[in-house]
Amino acid sequence: MSVKDTVSKAALSVVLDRAIKYVQKDPDKNLPKAAGRILGLFNGLFPSKNLEGIKKGAADPNNTYTKLVKNVFRDVDPHIIKTMAMSLGYEAGLKGTKAVRSNREKYDCNIPWIILLDPTSACNLHCKGCWAAEYGHQLNLSLEDMQSIVSQGKELGTHVYMYTGGEPLIRKKDIIRVCEENQDCTFLAYTNATLVDQQFCDDMKRVGNLSLALSIEGTQESNDWRRGDGAYQKTLDAMDLLKQNKCIFGISVCYTRTNVDYVTSDEFLDLMVEKGVKFGFYFNYMPIGHDADKDLIPSPAQRKYMYYWIRRVRNGKTGKPMFIFDFQDDGEFVGGCIAGGRNYFHINSRGDMEPCVFIHFADSNIHTHTLLEGLKNPLFTEYRKGQPFNDNHLRPCPMLENPDKLREIVKKSGAKSTDLIVEEDVDTLCRKCDEFAYAWKPVADEIWENNPHPKTHTQYYRDGGKAKMQ
Ligand code: SF4
């Protein structure tokens, strides 16, 4: 770390301490003033229109996001707020974004902003349609593997890591150790919440740079149908414990043909806000694995409903004080598919470098390749060449909405199935998506044509020069 960097960090640390104390004293009065100063740090990195919009929103007490931020200041431990602001805002947002962008040009390949890794294949639940339950307890990334992933990632500018699985908290000691040793990174664990206890909350507060996304799927009935009896109550109990301990957490929701109504109901969202949830990641069900039920894929009518629902609940006036992402319907904000290292990729518990948590193919493994070598290998290169996979960002996926693209990528690159139970060839996988892709196209095109799209500042670095800015 350079002297200049050390000084900037120390100065920012002092500013943040003061700002957090100042806002916590009287969030209603002090938040708008503090917001202007903090957002000033991001000038030049993000479009000024967006920053101005955030500042304006912060001055409106009825704005959903103002309520959300005030809730964060009221509910979350000041050390966690500060550590998150330093690791996510300064290290990942300010410094990391610059480093990632320059490395994309330097190495002429995709460089991710986020890396997902599975500490273990083991899971203590057996959810319907989830591949993890079948993987058994055999495969783990060692502590050294996890440390190596993070240190290689940091060299490339990556400062955000998400633990997936399997159930990552089966490895909670190692997870906490990696968080502790990498305070310049921010971590999130997707968890079924059954292993959250007081000791773990104490550890989360101590390290400050770990948040959780708890899996939940609507009401007790819809949740336990997929996750097993008692899972719903355990998740709510974990939320209570996390809230009491002032930890930061959100939810992870897989929406299927059977639970779309439950997981988008006001009743569900209001309960989540009351329980202390601050963010929600919504995932469209993907029919991966030999036992996957393609009839659980939400229908085109349900996807259309999700498109309008997400825009309503995220709206500053009509929304809920909880930040929600729907990865399948938010492609327009990020220029389509973000996998293959364009913004993220996934490392499974055997070390295979997969383009996406849902795409179980690889041609590189962390035990035989560096991260940079894997990013330059044929599979990720084919991803890079093909992105965006569709000009209609409501059809972003090379598998779900454009299955011929994934067939081509896998065959051209020679990547192999990494399914840990039964290898699944790309044609078998993509056949399960053909029907949906065909039915969704006219509906997606109609929505795309009849709704405005933001001018994103999405960059396709392979194009070079001016062409990289869309
Ligand atoms: S491969 Fe599909 S599911 Fe994965 S990030 Fe791309 S669009 Fe999303």
Structural class: alpha/beta
The structural domain count equals 2
C-alpha end-to-end distance: 34 Å
Bound ligands, each once: iron/sulfur cluster
CATH H level of the largest domain: which superfamily? Aldolase class I
What Rg is obtained from the alpha carbons, in whole angstroms? 21 Å
For the biggest sheet, the summary is:
9 strands, mixed
In the predicted model, the low-confidence regions spanning at least 5 consecutive residues are: none
Q: Total strand count, please?
A: 11
User: How much of the residues is beta strand, in percent?
Assistant: 5-15%
Mean pLDDT across all amino acids? 90
The gist of it:
The protein is an alpha/beta fold and 470 residues long.
Helix-strand blueprint:
Elements (H helix, E strand, L loop, with lengths): L2 H23 L1 H14 L7 H11 L5 H12 L2 H30 L6 E4 L25 H14 L3 E4 L8 H10 L4 E6 L6 H10 L2 E6 L4 H8 L3 H14 L4 E7 L4 H4 L2 H10 L3 E6 L15 H14 L9 E4 L17 E4 L5 E2 L6 E2 L8 H6 L1 H9 L16 H11 L2 E2 L8 H24 L21
Parallel strand pairs: 1-2, 1-8, 2-3, 3-4, 4-5, 5-6, 6-7
Antiparallel strand pairs: 8-9, 10-11
Helix pairs in contact: 1-2, 1-5, 2-3, 7-8, 13-17, 15-16, 16-17
The chain binds iron/sulfur cluster.
